[in-house]
Amino acid sequence: MLIVLPKGRLLKEIKNLLEKIGVSFEDSSRKLVMDTSVKGIKVAILRSWDIPKFVNKGIADMGFVGKDVLNEIEDEENFYESLDMGFGRCRLSLAAYEKMNNSNKPVVATKYPVSAKAFFASKMQNVEIIKLKGAIEIAPILGLSDYIVDLVQTGNTLKENGLSELEVIQDISTRLIINKSSFKTNNSKIERLVLSMKDALNENSKN
Ligand code: PRP
Predict the structure, then answer these.
(1) What would the DSSP string read from start to end of the chain?
(2) Of the given ranges (26-35, 107-116, 137-146, 191-200), which has the lowest mean pLDDT?
(3) N or C: where does the chain have the smaller number of CB atoms within 10 Å of the terminal CB?
(4) Can you give the pTM of this predicted structure?
């Protein structure tokens, strides 16, 4: 069984959780696929945007990924969204530079065009969406866009760049996804893992 984990801020939290349920691994080397303390369970660390792709194709049986990434998937999903892990909490928000000019077709910069499009459609607001890959906050400062739709956690990045959070679009957290056919073929093994994770999360929330 292969479990895929996202590189970056969430990795430590996920690694701790897996350790709690008896699945530990060393990630000090540059090895891409690693054995764990449980025979038959391997882990691989990927970029978060690639995690649903590997789970969708059944290359990985399970993966951890943010709801922000899941929202952007437009293809058919061959996976179940199983658990809300309750960590990696942040929000997808609309923000703008204080000295914004009002135009009738505002430009919105974002890494999340699907979510942004749905949000403005629900408001019947006609916008032009520009997809960027990172450092979204720079777009309104340099005049590329009127608004941004981006993740906000502490709000420090917005504040330091003179941007204001105008509206929370969606609360975000990390989710566990499971490939549909893996779920069928490895049902008891996967169910045991999911149940242990649930227990560990409940324990965490008590402490
Ligand atoms: C995210 C997000 C914001 C920042 C928000 O970026 O895009 O820039 O974190 O966090 P804060 O509210 O706590 O300041 P990330 O660091 O993931 O890098 P990126 O810009 O390359 O996406």
Answers:
(1) -EEEEESSTTHHHHHHHHHHTT------SS-SEEE-SSTT-EEEEE-GGGHHHHHHTTSSSEEEEEHHHHTT--SPP-EEEEEE-S-S-EEEEEEEETTPPP-SS-EEEES-HHHHHHHHHHTT---EEEE-SS-TTHHHHTTS-SEEEEEESSSHHHHHTTEEEEEEEEEE-EEEEEEHHHHHHTHHHHHHHHHHHHHHHHHHHH-
(2) 26-35
(3) C
(4) 0.93
